[in-house]
Design goal:
single chain
């Protein structure tokens, strides 16, 4: 297994795993306009990858089986975050047959390292129940908004 920084050429992998995540979390139904969601997701990915969106993938046998992304945000400076850089982690998903092997853990740690290297002072995420223990293990804590955050 190796972790790669995803690019434009990985838009299909990004979409496929994101849609599986939505189905698994019951965030989409048969009644939803999946075609519109796919079109807009692909457009966003292509326009933002490796600019405002950093996506990492775990590769096994030339296939991306796990993914995690970081949306970069610039806010008004604050005394605790003079540069105003923050990141929102999303789209963390591992194919079911590859779970429990540490792929998501490694991806999140790489996103944290990227954040530190780029002076991002706070990262946060919304977690599924299944993911909470992983994020706590890494150092994320629940905040008043019921999000999990890590201050760097």
């Amino acid at each position: 297994m190796k972790i790669i920084k995803m690019s434009n050429g990985h838009v299909n992998d990004f979409w496929d795993l994101r849609l599986k995540l939505f189905w698994e979390l019951n965030e989409v139904t048969e009644d939803d306009n999946i075609e519109l969601l796919e079109r807009e997701t692909r457009k966003f990915y292509i326009e933002n990858i490796n600019d405002n969106l950093i996506s990492l993938g775990a590769v096994v046998d030339d296939k991306i089986v796990s993914v995690g992304s970081l949306c970069l945000i610039k806010r008004v400076p604050h005394i605790s975050n003079i540069l105003g850089f923050e990141g929102y982690i999303l789209n963390v998903y591992t194919e079911q047959s590859y779970r429990g092997k540490g792929f998501a853990f490694k991806i999140i740690k790489e996103l944290i390292n990227y954040s530190k290297e780029n002076k991002i002072k706070r990262i946060w995420l919304d977690s599924s129940k299944d993911g909470e223990q992983l994020y706590k293990k890494i150092g994320f804590v629940k905040n008043d908004n019921n999000e999990m955050e890590l201050k760097l």
